[in-house]
Amino acid sequence: SQQGEEDPQALSIQEGENATMNCSYKTSINNLQWYRQNSGRGLVHLILIRSNEREKHSGRLRVTLDTSKKSSSLLITASRAADTASYFCATASNYGGATNKLIFGTGTLLAVQP
Amino acid sequence: GAGVSQSPSNKVTEKGKDVELRCDPISGHTALYWYRQSLGQGLEFLIYFQGNSAPDKSGLPSDRFSAERTGGSVSTLTIQRTQQEDSAVYLCASSLAFAGSGGWVFFGPGTRLTVL
Asked: Distances in Å between the alpha carbon of A69 and those of A54, A73, B78?
């Protein structure tokens, strides 16, 4: 079963604009991770934020985490056509006896128009 | 190898046949995951191996699905008596430490399974 729900399901923006994607999850977590999937199959790890962190930056990426609302957001600043991809959040949890499997959200399809 | 590898990259089979999908994780990675992704959908968790612990099989959709991990390295996902709804991309991933500790997870390119 899916842990996370992401919105929007699809997002289309112009190059240079910022893109914000949101992820909500259901259970307590150890960390939350964001991945990118280009057309094709491979997923690439982007950034990880731990449950005791509230914000993290990596290059043009900014991730926030609100554990009280069980939500996270991914902001891509100054978007480029090459950012066009599907973006997934994934949560890792060992609470309640759960193992440390990584559970993925439904994904946001981002299209950056040149 | 440099990354997670999977074979075959594509598999076309007839309904009712058995298939085996192989995953070679990154050397030294103790955690190994299998996911399934249907067209345009998110990743569905199937099974998770962590070291010598009993695997978490909670995501396997039916008893037609099974997986093994031999010697803590290579893993094989077996689907018996394939059905058309099994058609999907099967993704394998591995990490040095378990995901809850913050270990980065690396994905293979996937095996695209088509059941006719």
From this structure: 12, 12, 39
Phi-psi region of A104 (alpha: psi -120 to 50; beta: other; left: phi over 0): beta
Whether the Cβ atoms of residue A92 and residue A100 lie closer than 8 Å to each other = yes
Residue A83, classed as helix, strand or coil, is helix
Q: How far is B95 from chain A (nearest CA, A)?
A: 11
For residue B59, which residues of chain A lie inside 8 Å, CB to CB?
101
Model pLDDT, residue A64: 98
pLDDT in tens, B62-74: 999 999 998 879 9
Cα separations in angstroms, A100 against A56, A96, B16: 22, 11, 33
- Do residues A33 and A102 make contact, with C-beta atoms less than 8 angstroms apart? yes
Tell me whether residues A105 and B42 touch, CB distance under 8 A: yes
Tens digit of pLDDT for each residue in A33-92? Answer: 999 998 766 899 999 999 999 999 999 999 999 999 999 999 999 999 999 999 999 998
List residues of chain B with CB under 8 Å from any CB of chain A: 31, 33, 35, 37, 41-45, 48, 50, 56, 59, 89, 91, 93, 98-102, 104-110, 112
Taking an 8 Å cut-off on Cβ atoms, the answer to whether A88 and B43 are in contact is yes
Residue A63's DSSP bridge partners are A56, A74
Nearest to B100 among A31, A43, A107 (CB): A31
- For residues B36-59, average pLDDT: 88
How large a percentage of chain B has pLDDT more than 90?
Answer: 69
The residue to which tokens 């031999």 are assigned: B70
